[in-house]
Amino acid sequence: MLTNRDIAELTDWRRELHRFPEVSRDEAGTAARVVAALAPLSPDQVLTGLGGHGVAAVFSSAAPGPTVLFRAELDALPIEEVSDAPHRSTIPGSGHLCGHDGHMALLLGLGRLIARRRPARGRVVLMFQPAEEDGSGAAAVVADPAFAAIKPDWAFSLHNMPGISFGRGLLKAGVVNCASQGLKITLGGKTAHASQPEAGTSPALALAALIDGFTHLAPPGPLRPGYRLVTVTHARLGEPAFGIAPGAAELWITLRTTEDAEMASLRAEAVALAEAQARLHGLTVAFEAHDDFAASVNDPEATARIAAALEALGMVHDDADLPMRASEDFGRFGQPGTRSAMLFLGAGTDFPALHNPDYDFPDSLIAPGVAIFHRIARDLLG
User: Fold this and answer.
1) Boundaries of each Peptidase M20 dimerisation domain copy (predicted)?
2) What is the CA radius of gyration of the chain?
3) Where in 52-120 does DSSP place strands (E)?
4) Is 98 annotated as a binding residue?
5) Which residues have CB under 8 Å from 20's CB, separation 6+?
């Protein structure tokens, strides 16, 4: 188990990471801090540049056995932190407001325990993944040719959850996070003088119709199989001027489904709706996909491994509040041949929500998080 000195040092390291947040695909400094912190643990191998700035530390045994991967995320959010904490962000407009700094501290704590007592068989991979927040990181890591050498048989992850009692686990087999995709729709017409709007082609009516149409295409409802949701997140019409009738518009929407297969169908409906409005109003239309998240689906056997670890540690867990509407790119690790599962660990009921400007990972969650990961590793590898 971790010593008091371990916990103090991991807390200090977590707060250092918190002071220097880096957003998705820009985590070079964070990755360098991870590599430096891993060096005293003497892993058998350290891979860098995985899928961008990803770092993987490998701890091997002398006996054959499964490869067990534990993942944390490197990236922060493009949100200004509002805090009086001495370790608050020093980077304007960026903050570790989702707890990825804490997740990295958990993984480093696990590394300390594994380094002191190597697994009896197989190997442990500590995966510090880039770009979780925009959905691109896990896919890039898995697609990286270097990942093939550490492809896991088992993959586990953990996310802190404010609003849930401290230390309570949320866990279930099956879908735990929805698939989602951002869709940017650009409408093109022709500008005109505001005194003669009929001389141009305005996308205003099409934009208004699409906002209404998307709002009703898949409105909020119970989260059950076949669930679909379309959320209008941003709209822009023309230039901020009184003398110009608009000739262009943008509409950003987020598509969300419980199943990956349903995403293709929902996207096709959204595209068809936009194309119909463009034809009706004599406009061009173009589409760009962003923030593409697959559904996160917990493998039953991997879920059972997490449950056994929680029960051995005397920690309560249930499947209430699952699945979640929110997306998580960890599901990309659950490729053929890999059993993967994710745990959501309560950070406390009286706590700012994830992505709030005053959020800060609770350091008291480091020790129990490490204990869970370590128990899983020992149960699988001895």
Assistant:
1) 181-278
2) 23
3) 54-60, 67-73
4) yes
5) 29, 30, 33, 89, 90, 91
Query: What's the whole-model pTM score?
Result: 0.94
Same domain, 157 and 261: no
Report the pLDDT averaged over residues 135-163.
98
> Pick from 274, 293, 312: which residue ends a domain?
293
CA triple 189-194-199, angle to 5 deg: 50
Measured in whole angstroms, the distance separating CA 291 from the mean position of its chain's CA atoms is 10
According to the annotation, is 100 in a ligand binding site?
A: yes
- Indicate which CATH number applies to the domain containing 169: 3.40.630.10
Phi/psi for 324 (5° steps) reads: -105, 150
In terms of DSSP bridges, do strands 54-60 and 45-50 run parallel, antiparallel, or are they unpaired? antiparallel
193 is annotated as contributing to ligand binding? no
Are 337 and 277 members of one domain?
Answer: no
Mean pLDDT of 353-370: 98
Asked whether residue 288 is marked as a ligand-binding residue, the answer is: no
Indicate the pLDDT class of residue 83, thresholds 50, 70 and 90. very high
Question: pLDDT averaged over the chain?
Answer: 97
pLDDT in tens, 166-185: 999 999 999 999 999 999 99
30 with 150, same domain: the answer is yes
Q: What is the pLDDT of residue 299?
A: 98
Domain membership of residue 11 as a residue range: 4-177+296-381
